[in-house]
Amino acid sequence: MFSKSRIALALAAIVLMPATQAVSADYNPPIYVDEAPDYQPVEVGSGWYLRGDIGYAFSHPYENSSNIPGFSSSRTLFDASVGMGYHFNDYLRADLNLGILPSNKFGDSVDTTCAGSTTTTTVDNTSGTITSQLTAPDTRPCNGSSNALNKAYSLMANGYVDLGTYVGITPYIGAGAGVVYDKYASAIGAKNCVPSTSSVVSNGNTITTQFNCDDPAGYDGQVSSKARYDFAYSLAAGLSYQVTKNVSVDLGYEYLSIPSAQYVAYDNGLFNVHKGVNFQTVKLGLRYDLW
C-alpha cells in the first residue's frame, strides 16, 4: 500500500512538471516607461511689436519773419510714423520707423509791372483803311507773387532702455539714427501778365490800343528746388503704460536733429536758404505686442 502511494505521487510530480515550466516560461516582468514631457508650443513672433505715433513739434521749425503786406504762411506742426520693433529682454528694445515730418508753405503777393508793348491803330470808319499804326514799349500793372515750401520724410532706427515698471508705468530713455529725405522749392518773382485791347471812336475814326506782353503769361518766376538725403539723429525719453497684455500707450519727448538739411525761409522779403533743422516734439504712441 505504501509503495503504491509513493508511485502515485511520483507519477503526479512527473505530470505536473511540464505545466509548471510552462507557467514559468509565460511570466513577463513589468515594464516601466518614463512619461513624455508635456508639449510646449513655440510662440511664433514672440518679442516683436508694431507701433504707431503722432507728434506735435512745439519748437516751430521753419520759422519765417516778415513785416511786408501780402505775406501769407501755412505750416503743419504735426508728424506721424509707423514701425516695427523687438524686445530683446525686459529692459532693452529697438524699432525701425518710417515717418513724415512737419512741413510749411509760404509766399507773398504784390502789385508789380509787366513789360510789353502797345500798338495803337487808327482806322477810317468810312473807308475801313488803316490810316496809322504805331508800336512802342510799354508796361502795365499786374499781379506778382513769390512762394516756397519745405517738406521731409524720415527712416529712423531707435534703441530704448526701459527703466523698470512702477504701478504699471515704465519710464524709458532712447536714442536713434537714420536718414531723412528733405526737399525745398521756391518760385520768386512770378508774374501774371494779361494782354488787353481797348477801342474808342473819335472824329470818324476807330482808335484801337492793344497791349501785348513781353513777359509770358503765367510766368513762374525764378524757380529753384533741391532734394537730398541727410543723416539724422534723435534723443528720446518718456513713459509707457500697459493697457492690456498686448497693448501699451506711450507718451514721450523726442529731439530730432538734421544738421545738414537745407530749407528755404522768408526773411523780410528775401527767400534765403538755411542749413540745419531741429525738431522738438511731444509724441503719443501705441504699441501692439505680437505674443
Automatic annotation (TrEMBL):
The keyword Zinc does not apply. SUPFAM superfamilies: OMPA-like. InterPro entries: Beta-barrel_OMP (IPR027385), OMP/PagP_B-barrel (IPR011250). Residues 1-24 form the signal peptide. The keyword Signal applies. Residues 46-288 form the Outer membrane protein beta-barrel domain. Keywords: Signal. This is Porin family protein. It comes from Mesorhizobium dulcispinae.
